[in-house]
Specification:
- By secondary structure, this protein is α+β, with helices and mostly antiparallel strands.
- A four-stranded antiparallel sheet has the order 3-4-5-6, with no helix packed on it. It has a four-stranded antiparallel sheet with strand order 7-8-9-10, with no helix packed on it. A two-stranded antiparallel sheet has the order 1-2.
- The N terminus is likely disordered.
């Protein structure tokens, strides 16, 4: 890369801002090749960290450390700087039902015909941290899945629907989730199937 040419990632999707000395001269093959490489890497990175958020995304400050904050999308995000610089601490936790996700993200703007993008699908809608053990998190999603981590991100395990008596397998909505005040391995979950 030449000293007078510096790539900069813009905050807009699929945009790379670059500067070069004389803009009347066409870009060289080297610059064009470098831009193509950066755009390819940007697409790969964007696909890998594709984020979806519910219009009522859960977030909270840890009761164990006021500098730690968590937020739920299709991934769980964490900040150790009071909400600045969130970073993902989970993989995509949804069932990855791409037809519904595509409809909610690209075709209608929401699960219903809504152009605001308010209703995305396959997202964490309830998130809670254990009162007993820091970093022990529980996440419930709009596709009925519940999962947890005991070690603040290293591993996330799904909780099988068979662990919830009376709940039929399917796309139920997790409406509430509360970690036990006394046992880090217990949480209370409420489901809603009217949707």
């Amino acid at each position: 890369v030449k000293p007078n040419w510096r790539p900069r990632y813009a905050q807009y999707e699929d945009s790379i801002l670059y500067t070069r000395g004389d803009t009347t001269v066409p870009a060289t093959r080297e610059v064009t090749a470098r831009l193509t490489d950066l755009r390819n890497r940007q697409r790969t990175d964007s696909a890998e960290l594709d984020m979806r958020f519910n219009w009522n995304s859960p977030y909270f400050i840890s009761s164990h450390n006021p500098d730690v904050m968590y937020m739920g999308g299709n991934r769980v995000l964490k900040s150790t700087q009071r909400g600045d610089n969130f970073y993902p601490i989970s993989p995509d936790l949804s069932k990855k039902q791409m037809a519904k996700i595509d409809t909610s993200m690209r075709r209608t703007g929401g699960i219903t015909i809504d152009a605001t993008g308010a209703e995305t699908y396959g997202t964490v809608v309830v998130l809670h941290e254990s009162y007993v053990r820091p970093g022990s998190l529980w996440a419930g999603r709009d596709d009925g899945n519940v999962c947890s981590t005991r070690n603040d991100r290293a591993t996330w395990e799904p909780i099988p629907m068979s662990r919830f008596p009376g709940i039929a397998a399917g796309d139920v909505y997790v409406t509430r989730l509360e970690a036990s005040h006394y046992d880090s391995l217990t949480a209370y979950v409420a489901f809603d199937n009217h949707r």
